């Protein structure tokens, strides 16, 4: 159990904040989901499956995921060289977390409804010219 002290500001005291930073950065979930669902993938295969990500961002995220131990990169010294990416056991250990979030997603309609109700009663601030 993580001990929470009153001396720390809330953003540092929250025990799940570091997990959220690792797991829920912009492209982590689509990359891990793709690797978990389709298995080992070459860079171009990932790029084709995650159509809205740029090559630069995919490269950056894959490097970070490899550094975090969630993805394994395998280099094959062939001509031309081949590189494949695969989710690690540590990455697969996130499956229960993702399953719980998928279960919670049934509430998204309620979130949308709450937003609509809020927007209807709270005036939007006007910008000054």
Can you offer a commentary on this structure?
- This protein has 129 residues and is mainly α.
- It has a single domain (10-121), classed as Arc Repressor Mutant, subunit A (Orthogonal Bundle), CATH 1.10.10.
- It is 54% helix and 11% strand.
- The protein contains eight helices and three strands.
- It has helices at residues 10-13, 17-23, 28-38, 43-49, 55-67, 89-92, 95-104, 108-121, and strands at 41-42, 71-76, 82-87.
- A three-stranded antiparallel beta sheet has the order 1-3-2.
- A hairpin with a 5-residue loop joins strand 2 (71-76) and strand 3 (82-87).
- The N and C termini lie far apart (53 Å).
- The mean pLDDT is 88.
Topology overview:
Blueprint (H helix, E strand, L loop, with lengths): L9 H4 L3 H7 L4 H11 L2 E2 H7 L5 H13 L3 E6 L5 E6 L1 H4 L2 H10 L3 H14 L8
């Amino acid at each position: 159990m993580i001990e929470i002290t009153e001396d720390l500001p809330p953003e540092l005291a929250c025990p799940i904040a570091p997990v959220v930073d690792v797991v829920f950065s912009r492209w982590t979930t689509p990359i891990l989901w793709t690797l978990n669902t389709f298995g080992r993938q070459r860079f171009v295969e990932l790029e084709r499956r995650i159509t809205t990500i740029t090559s630069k961002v995919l490269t950056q995220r894959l490097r970070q995921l490899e550094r975090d131990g969630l993805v394994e990169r395998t280099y094959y010294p062939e001509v031309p060289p081949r590189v494949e990416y695969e989710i690690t056991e540590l990455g697969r250990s996130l499956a229960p977390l993702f399953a719980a979030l998928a279960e919670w997603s049934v509430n998204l309609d309620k979130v949308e409804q709450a937003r609509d109700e809020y927007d209807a009663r709270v005036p939007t601030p006007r910008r000054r010219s």
